[in-house]
Design a protein that fits this description.
The protein has 112 residues and is mainly alpha-helical. It has two domains: 30 residues, no CATH class; 76 residues, no CATH class. Helix content is 59%, strand content 7%. Strands 1-2 form a two-stranded parallel sheet.
């Protein structure tokens, strides 16, 4: 199993490395400020876009602004959808392709 990391210091600890070896996890270093190499950034981009669309729909329907609790519920509802699961899977599986593109570009941006 492979995973990425965003230079988190806790991932460099002896205990974390030991567990990673035990679970056969290989960490891939992702350079800082490289959102094209982070599936998390891609997913959050999709989620923000979806929530903005819902906010615009509320404005058009002249609904009152939602509360913090309602917004939290809205985020949870979106995250539970099949579409969110598909987007998350696509973001993760696309990482290998993006990394290969960056390598072929000798470290330059992937263009995605």
């Amino acid at each position: 199993m492979n995973t990425h990391r965003d230079n988190e210091s806790f991932l460099k600890t002896a205990a974390c490395r030991k567990e990673a070896r035990k679970c056969k996890v290989t960490f891939w270093h992702i350079p800082p400020r490289s959102p094209d190499l982070s599936p998390v950034e891609k997913f959050w981009g999709w989620l923000r876009k979806r929530l903005r669309k819902m906010g615009r729909e509320d404005l058009r329907a002249k609904r009152p602004p939602i509360t913090k609790a309602q917004y939290k519920r809205r985020v949870q509802d979106v995250l539970r959808t099949g579409q969110a699961n598909r987007v998350a899977k696509n973001c993760y599986t696309g990482l290998r392709k993006v990394c290969q593109k960056v390598l072929s570009n000798k470290g330059a941006h992937s263009g995605t």
